[in-house]
Structure formats: C-alpha cells, structure tokens
Amino acid sequence: MNIHEYQGKEILKRYGVRIQEGIVAESPEKAVEAAKQIMAQTGSKFVVVKSQIHAGGRGKGKIKGTEQRGVKVAKSVDEVRDIAKNIIGNVLITHQTGPEGKKVNKVLVAQDVYYPGAADPKEYYISILLDRTKACNVIMASTEGGMDIEEVAEHTPEKIIKEWIDPAVGLQPFQARKIAFALGLEGDAFKEMVKFVTSLYKAYVDIDASMFEINPVLKTSDNKILAVDAKVNLDDNALYRHPDIANLRDLNEEDPLEVEATSFDLNYVKLDGNVGCMVNGAGLAMATMDIIKLSGGEPANFLDVGGGANAKTVEAGFRIILKDPNVKAILINIFGGIVRCDRVATGVVEAYKAIGDIPVPIIVRLQGTNAEEGARIIDESGLKVYSAVQLKEAAAKVSQVLEEVGA
Q1: Binding residues for Mg(2+), per the UniProt record (predicted)?
Q2: 184-209 pLDDT, tens digit each
Q3: Residue 268: which H helix or E strand, with range?
Q4: CATH dotted code for 21-111
Q5: What is the per-residue pLDDT across 50-79, written as a single tens digit (0 to 9) for each?
Q6: Is 150 flagged in the annotation as binding?
C-alpha cells in the first residue's frame, strides 16, 4: 500500500526522524491558512507548495496544459493562493504517471528548509528495501540526492552505497556510522546522519514497510539532517497489525477497478490489452499472460482469484474484467489443486447466467482435479463458452476468437 508524502513524514516523525514540517491543505484557502501558520512559526517568508499524489517526479512534472510544476516555492501568501489554485483539482503529469496524469486533490504546504547560512546545504539519497537475493534488508545511500536514482545507477554507479542488514540482528551502530562516513560527513552532521539512519531503519522494521525512499535527505546549513521528501510503501500482508496505518489508504489514488477487486479479495491489476484473464495463482497468471501474448493478443489484466474460486468470486471477476471496454475475449485458466475443476466450471456457468448476456467470448481451460467433468459442464451449458484442457488448446482458441471479432 502506498501513502502520501505528508502521511509518510508523520510516521517518520513519530520515530524521531527529523522532517521538513508542513500542513496538508485541500483548497487554496486552506493552503493560505497553512502558509500563514508555517511562516509565523519559522519566521520565513517562503514556503513550498507540494502536490500530493502517489507518484514520483512531482517537482519536474507539470499540471496538464500549463507550465505549472507540481512542486513550487511560494514567496508570499498571494503566491501560495495562486499556486494552490493552479494545482488543486487539476491533473499532474510526471514520468511515473504516464501521459494521462493524476488528479491532485491536496497539497502539502511545507517549511522552507533551504535557508541561508554559513555553509551551503547538501542533498543526499537514502532508501531501505528488501534484497530478495540476499534475504536481507539493504540501505542504499548516495551523495547524489535530488536526482532519479536510476540515472545515478546508470551513469555513476560507484556513487551508490549499499549496506546489507542481517534481519536476525538488525542494524548495528557501526553500520550507521559506516554510511555516514561513506557520505563524507563529519562533526555534527555525521552524528545527525547516524541518528537519522538508525531511526529510519527502526521505523521501517516496526511498521512492516516494503520500501522507504527519502530523496532528498538534506544537510542544512547548520548541519541538521532531515527528510525533505518521503516515499513509503507498506506490506499489504502486514496491515492487519497496523490498523492506524491501514486507515491512511487513499482510494482516490487507486484504480477504481483495483479497489473493487480488493473488496472481493481478488488480486487485480489493469493492463492495456484486449484479452481479459482470470486465473488461480500468481505464477499461473504470469504464464497465462504469456500464452495470450503468444496467441496474438495482449493481456488486459492480471487477475488472481486465489485457491477458493467459487461462483461469487468468478462473477465478481467477470464484472470487473467486463468494465474494461478494450476487452474482446476472456481466458479463464484454472489448475484444480485446492479447488476442484467441476466446482469452478459450475461457478463459471452460474456467474454467466447471473450477469446475463456477456458480449465477449470466453475460453475456459481447466486442468487438475475433475478437469474432464469440468469441461463437460462447460460444453453442455449451452452458453458461449469454449472449454480447453491443454495450454496449446487454450492458445488456439484465443487466436480463433480474436480473429472472429477482428481484434
């Protein structure tokens, strides 16, 4: 589960991580109030207005049809109002949103942390994620903060520092110091970075995060270390342990079909193809998408109904897939291990009748327990459903129906 920058920062703050303070606002008027409050608290005449969407690259992104950036410094209250008017309710396009962009429903009005002083501020990059190849968490750090880490990895990989953490013992003090040394810090800034990394890692473990990305991490002109941005991803499977964090989910930021699918305990991801697929098991779903591709089609979605497929889940899957106007055919690929194929076939027939006339052809490939009986149920249903047992049969049927519909 993704959360907004302002939500991620509040979590980090609870763990002693110094952050760029800010106030979220859902209207230009609220943004002005927030700016006045922050200016009064900090004594600064500047604030930063930051779009809040679940995507990176906001600073380089632009509001659709304008030159307005997704993150902009405001030098007066009037500027705050104008910037917020241009952002809130409009669509922000970044390299991560694609050309369709995302609607911005709120902004974060944040303090200006790049204040003048005796020394220049410096930006760093720090992230924490799971390295599956080593079965360890890894802390990645770089002196090239503020840039896309992909560009740094491509052009100057030697500037990326990696420190692997044994999950059995956790982050050790010498490792936090090692990272601070590698970033070239000394004195108060060194101590601040050690504390920052230690607190950040504790937060990561405690909330069952799957990724933290802080870019940039700022060393201010008076040697404080703080998070200017915060990208936080949570492990969905652990949210039951964190109901307070689960409540931070913003459904407006998610695809409506994916939200609907989660209400039926279905794993659904929308794609751009023309063949809908419904499968039990993530690995089989990936193989099914390959089959669709090899048969001349393009997968329209990833949909895993899990091991307990029944008429209710199959019907929900049908309804979700059919809401995509690009779908010209549906391939159901079920392996009968935990669930019997005849039960799935009965569920398909019942779901078909419950929905009514389904406008696209359906291919059902059943293999495993009671596969032959399942195929018989499909064939004798009298519905516009084609059965298959072998993968090559299913692929051939997909090619046939796509040709028939002219897709």
Answers
A1: 215, 229
A2: 999 999 999 999 999 999 999 999 99
A3: strand 267-270
A4: 3.30.1490.20
A5: 999 999 889 889 999 998 999 999 999 999
A6: no
CATH 3.30.420.10 fits 256-405, yes or no: no
What does the pLDDT read at residue 115? 64
Domain 122-245 has CATH 3.20.20.150: no
Residue 125 annotated to the active site: yes
Query: Would the annotation count 339 as a binding residue?
Result: yes
Question: Helix, strand, coil proportions of the chain in percent (round to 5)?
Answer: 40, 25, 35
CB 360 within 8 A of CB 405: yes
Beta bridge partners of 165: 137
Closest CA to 144 of 162, 127, 156: 156
Q: Has 50 been labeled as part of a binding site?
A: yes
- Active site (annotated) includes residue 115: no
Return all residues near 190 (Cβ < 8 A) that are at least 6 apart.
Answer: 177, 180, 181
Instruction: Give ranges for CATH 3.30.470.20 in the chain.
Output: 122-245
> What is the predicted pLDDT for the residue at 118?
41
Q: From start to end of 94-197, where are the E strands?
A: 102-103, 107-111, 122-131, 136-142, 160-165
Which one of 6, 114, 124, 125 is the catalytic residue? 125
Residue 301 confidence (pLDDT) above 70: yes
Q: Is 58 annotated as a binding residue?
A: yes
Annotated catalytic residue, options 5, 144, 192, 213: 213
